Amino acid sequence: MTPIALLFLFLAAVFGGAVNSVAGGGTLITFPTLIAFGVSPVVANATNTAALLPGSISSAIAYRQDIPSQRKLALTLALPSMAGGLVGAVALIAAPEIFGKIVPYLILFATLLFAGKNLFNRLTRQDTEGAEKPVSWAGTVWGVVFQFLVATYGGYFGAGIGILMLASLSIMGMHNIHRMNAVKTLLAAVINGVALVYFIIRNEILWPLAILMAIGAIIGGYGGARLAKRINQNLVRSIVVVSGLIVSAWLIIKPL
Q1: Position with higher pLDDT, 90 vs 165
Q2: What whole-number distance in Å separates Cα of residue 59 and Cα of residue 63?
């Protein structure tokens, strides 16, 4: 790649990291940028996973004080997260031609999920002080099954898994958004970590690009976290949604 292309990828990672820390949805910035510069869909997905995983891990560490109160639930959902993440990654590598055909619709799906995030928050009545209801046996079964499906999607593509996991946790009885985010962030790191190990084994990652973008994502994530309270999050969400819609429309018109 040319120096200009590398610069664009680095800046996209910085912006994606900042978006993740402020509003989520950074994959909708970084993944299409890799595609735009000629990286094949499967390799772009694997490289993007490697680039953004450090941010997921650092976020999980940041939420470490909220995890102990939900340790049992987190451990219960970690198993289907690991299994689903591996299944999704294997499916991605096994049939790359299918992934190439459905990429535009995956981006559109993730964009619509992201666009409806505020509505979902209102419908599920998340708050910062609410006490969680005890999770019933039926709720646990629901959570395990749904988490496996979310993790499978996460290992396969992944954009929007945070919103899906928040929906599942809410149905299970959680309403404290800080604790929900703690569990969600930890499980996202598990899903992406398992998928990344498989991508490494299959040699599907462009490591120079992954390292470059990881550095950018860390810088963007740190800066975004510091500016989160000063930035209009609705504006950031609007930019991500518009970008996602444009990219998905472009890929539908001009298939990979």
Answers
A1: 90
A2: 6
Report the amino acid identity of residue 232.
N
CB 74 within 8 A of CB 186: yes
Residue 123 has pLDDT above 70, yes or no: no
The DSSP letter of residue 128 is S
Kindly indicate the confidence band of residue 244, based on its pLDDT and cuts at 50, 70 and 90. confident
C-alpha 87: how far from chain center: 17
Do residues 81 and 186 lie in contact, with contact meaning Cβ atoms separated by under 8 Å?
Answer: no
Q: Is 181 helix (H, G, I), strand (E, B) or coil?
A: helix
Classify 159 as helix, strand or coil. coil
Cα–Cα distance for residue pair 135/179, rounded to 1 Å: 14
What whole-number distance in Å separates Cα of residue 203 and Cα of residue 112? 32
Percent of the chain as helix, strand, coil, to the nearest 5 = 80, 0, 20
* Domain residue ranges of the chain, discontinuous segments joined by +: 3-253
End-to-end CA distance of the chain: 19
- The whole-model pTM stands at 0.81
Do the beta carbons of residue 240 and residue 115 sit within 8 Å? no
